[in-house]
Design brief:
- This protein is mainly β.
- The protein has a single domain, classed as Peptidase/esterase 'gauge' domain (Methylamine Dehydrogenase, Chain H, 7 Propeller).
- Helix content is about 0%, strand content about 60%.
- A four-stranded antiparallel β-sheet has the order 2-29-28-27, with no helix packed on it. The protein has a four-stranded antiparallel β-sheet with strand order 3-4-5-6, with no helix packed on it.
- The protein is globular and about 50 Å long.
Length: about 300
């Protein structure tokens, strides 16, 4: 975790990564060794969240400001049978999986609405919204592949889906209506994806550019903006907080992926916990309104990675 210019190692042994952080500083993620499972980190303490009864492992993907956690529980996850779960105050419940065989939740808002995608078959995914005990298919952009990635407290959902012409486009779903957000590329195969939305309705993700590169993007009030890179040819935005700070990862001019925070038209690179390991560095996954960032960073020459918190 990165905070106030400091990176904190959340897991001192084994391999793990942090997936999300809420406004209270609670962090959730996945441990891969020595024992696979999902965890909640709070004020220096790691809590094992367990699994749905009968499943050997789980992974936590998101946490809201009420401390409700969503993730997946199953056998090696997709394409094996797996279930979306909701964990709250020590209890884990199965959210179901429509008519598919694996449900992957991606986010939960302050109202307890859960979104994600269900795998119906090879290459067939459908975005879902779960609320008050019911899981609903929210529709498509014209094909059999649609996934939802984020939801705000207003119930607006963003994600991406394959269009009728076979390319991926970002979408915004708002109370029953799915809108194609388009791309900045002019090519027939230009693509885009949306990965996060804040309470103001600002959407971030990535888009093909006019020259064919892939850049982080910000969509607001009908306009998509190219956020640039850290010097390389590729970047992507994966989160945005209430202050409009955008979090993502970018290639540098040296070909190394680095996490960044974009604010006020400026992209700031975040440091790895350790460097010099054959280009391996750090990856960011979430940011809260305090500017705290969580992700993972390489910590040893053999490539071992730990969940971390960046603060500034």
């Amino acid at each position: 975790m990165w905070e106030k210019g400091t990176m904190v190692d959340l897991t001192t042994t084994g391999v793990a990564d942090a997936r999300a952080i809420n406004e209270q500083g609670q962090v959730v993620g996945c441990a891969f060794s020595p024992t696979p499972g999902s965890f909640l980190w709070e004020r220096g303490t790691l809590i094992d969240l367990g699994t749905i009864p009968g499943d050997p492992q789980s992974c936590a993907y998101a946490v809201n400001n009420r401390g409700q956690v969503v993730g997946v529980s199953g056998v090696n996850f997709a394409p094996a049978p797996c279930h979306a779960f909701l964990w709250e105050r020590g209890t884990m419940i199965d959210l179901g999986r429509l008519d598919g065989f694996c449900a992957n939740p991606s986010a939960i808002n302050s109202a307890g609405q859960v979104i994600g995608a269900v795998e119906l078959g090879p290459g067939q995914w459908r975005a879902f919204l779960w609320e008050r005990g019911t899981m609903t298919d929210i529709g498509t952009l014209g094909s059999t592949f649609t996934v939802s990635n984020a939801i705000n407290s207003r119930g607006q959902i963003v994600g991406h889906g394959r269009t009728a012409s076979g390319v991926f486009h970002a979408f915004l779903w708002d109370h029953g209506t799915m809108t194609d957000l388009g791309t900045l590329g002019t090519q027939a195969n230009a693509q885009s994806q949306a990965w996060a939305i804040n309470e103001a309705g600002q959407v971030v993700g990535w888009t093909s550019t006019a020259n064919g590169e892939v850049h982080a993007s910000l969509w607001e009030q009908g306009t998509m903006t190219d956020l640039g890179t850290l010097g390389g040819i590729q970047s992507n935005a994966i989160a945005i907080n209430a202050r409009g700070q955008v979090l993502g990862n970018s290639l540098t001019a040296d070909g190394e992926f680095r996490p960044f925070v974009w604010e006020g038209a400026t992209m700031i690179a975040l440091p790895p916990l350790a460097s010099g390991f054959d280009g391996a560095g750090a990856t960011a996954t979430a940011i809260n309104s305090a500017g705290q960032v969580v992700g993972e960073s390489v910590v040893s020459p053999n490539g071992e990675r730990h969940a971390v918190l960046w603060t500034r």
